[in-house]
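Case study.
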Amino acid sequence: MTDVNEQWSARTRAIVAGRPHESDGPMNTPLVPVSTLGLGYAREDGTPTWAAFEDAVGELEGGTATAFASGIATASAVLDSLPAGARVAVPGDSYTGTRALFEHAETGGRIRVETLPPTDTDAWVAAAARCALLWLESPTNPSMEVMDVAAIAAAAKDGGQRPLVVVDNTFATPLGQQPLTLGADVVVHSATKFLGGHSDLLLGVAVTADGDLTERLRRARTLIGATPGALEAFLALRGVRTLPVRYTEASTTAALLADRLAGHVAVRRVRYPGSGAMLAFDLPDADTADRVCARLRLIRHATSLGGVETTVERRAARGGDAHVAPGLLRLSVGLEAPEDLWRDLERALHSVE
Ligand SMILES: Cc1ncc(COP(=O)(O)O)c(C=O)c1O
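After joint prediction, the assembly is written out as follows.
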């Protein structure tokens, strides 16, 4: 692989990392659909395509990356590395699928789960003294709460239990925040979202600067078989190449939309942390929010997020999110012209004024 100069900006490193360096070789790491590599076996030893994707993400997050079949497969591998009966803290407002996985593990008697308010840093600091894993998500999905990762990670290092601090960085991306530099042990992504960036794959990744943790995660991947597909890793690497420019562009548009939404008479509250492509806003009730979704023409009413296309979803309509305000709409901002997006939103909002 090509050597990456640490002084290069993320934008440059996203282009260079994970690329073959032979001058007369292929420009890209080929898509290698393979199970057997001589005496090596892909589930145990990885493949060149996974490795290229892992190099690029590791470079952006500042550690060694391990790719998994999905974001949830990544979380499963982290759980798998815990001792039986471990106490785990998770934010009350975090992705429903992650909380469902933890509840499933608790029902099976494998872990004990504590659900904490994401912004109550004192509660997280206190939990550091009794938990084996602090699972953070920041900003949270869908309420866009921002957690104090540095303070919680510092408490985890001080406390006797020394819990593992894991941050789901799916919303912020490594361009918005690098949790390992804030003291986290592991950063995880649903690469399905912004890393892949085109709504055409399912993939997950975990990054850590701790060699033992990398070993444990890779062993978990091997044991539970949570392995990525070759095409998925290939496409996601292609997505990573443009992540910095996509992120910058979408952030600018998201900030503009957040600002205009905040000034709109129909909007009760805008939740935007100041950077990134995700935002949420509150309409008075479920019915109003549903009518706005139905009136949008350009913005797709669809689940998931992180693609080049702008999507909107009323998360409370999906169930499993009892705490989410019924009129909250989550917007994943893509790469369309900002004024076209605003015109679409304004027209739809006008119908409920
Ligand atoms: C913040 C966050 N983490 C994890 C996941 C799970 O990822 P996947 O669907 O790739 O398993 C999602 C999916 O929506 C998510 O939004």
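Observations recorded in class. The mean pLDDT is 96. The first strand starts at residue 36 and ends at 37. We will return to this complex in the next lecture.
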